[in-house]
Protein: Na(+)/H(+) antiporter subunit E
Amino acid sequence: MKKANYVSKVVFETIVLFLTWILLTESFATSELIFGFLIALVISIGTADLFTEHGLAHLNPKRLFYLIIYIPYYLYQVIKANIQVAVIVLSPSLPIKPGIVKVKTNLKSDVGKLSLANSITLTPGTITMDVQDDELFVHWIKVEDESVEGATESIVSPFEKFLKEIFS
Structure:
């Protein structure tokens, strides 16, 4: 994906910030919508180069489709991990095997890697400790496989297949 011009970045950031404003205020009063749009526009003019490199290209229907699918899938993974951690905590034998594993990602963009690292960290039982090039170091509450391939398959693959489509 090629880099966008400044106007494309401002328009995209204004849309994202304005939608965030609507979600946070939960109001469709005209005065609040105008105020929210103006705030979003002013912030976008000042920070568009920091927020995105690709501007309106992010609104590609294929990417939006995968993003919409990813959100419930991610929530399912979080719920599943919560249950697994609860079972571990409530078990009298406390069956944990904590450790740090190295995993690999095929994601190329920094935003994609950041999203992957945050998805892993926000899933109970795992914390991304560091990202170096295409490798992530993850603290895992119950290490099931210490090999890079096995840990990558267990930790990264569930998220990466969606993030690759969203951030490619």
